[in-house]
Amino acid sequence: MEESLWRSADKLRGSVEPSEYKHVVLSLIFLKYASDRFEEQRKKIIANGHEKFVDMKAFYTQDNAFYLPDETRWSYIMQHAKQPDIALLIDTALYTIEKNNEQLKGALPDNYYSRLNLDTSKLASLLDVIDGIELTADKEQDVIGRVYEYFLSKFALKEGKGKGEFYTPKTIVNLIAELLEPYSGILYDSVCGTGGMLIESIYHIHNARMNYESSSF
């Protein structure tokens, strides 16, 4: 993944400030991730014999997947990647997803790619790089957090423009979760960024439960 993210940064050099790379790439990563999850869930619904429900939102949200209309899916974006209006298509896709999912209100950029004025060929090349990244193979991977931390550490901090932006390495997050043993009560992360600590705590609880159940036999 990091190799692909570095190539994505190459596509942006000279067009935007290095400290902005993460903003340009993150929303595209989210768009592909959401679409990959949608396609996985769609196949699952059909495999379970519920093909007539493939366009019902509830059959996606019940398994933590977003239902995506045609024009918001990654396949649609890639089909039109080399069109002059691709930036507008991406903005429209993000707007539509946010509008149809209340929990995403205010989370996605508004008209961002149209305002970037990126050359169409550069944006198309960036989409090609992201298209090759496998995002859903590892179910326990905090993909969005990992991408954010990568760009923050490689570019934002080194450019001196990320003052006040810090992240905790995953190894430290793992250690803190193990020390906390968050099996009861309320977990409060006072410096929550990408939610990595909360996500890791969920995995920690899940793994502890699985180990307990295995040892009980």
- Provide the helix percentage: 55-70%
Most strands sheet: none
Helical element count?
Answer: 10
The gyration radius over C-alpha positions equals 19 Å
The quaternary organization reads as single chain
Structure, explained:
The N and C termini lie far apart (38 Å). This protein has 10 helices and no strands. It is an all-alpha fold and 217 residues long. 58% of the residues lie in helices and 0% in strands. The mean pLDDT is 84.
Helices, strands, pairings?
Elements: H1 2-12, H2 21-47, H3 58-61, H4 74-79, H5 86-100, H6 112-116, H7 120-131, H8 143-156, H9 170-180, H10 196-215
Give the key terms:
mainly alpha; 10 helices; globular; 217 residues
Short description:
This protein has 217 residues and is an all-alpha fold. It has helices spanning 2-12, 21-47, 58-61, 74-79, 86-100, 112-116, 120-131, 143-156, 170-180, 196-215.
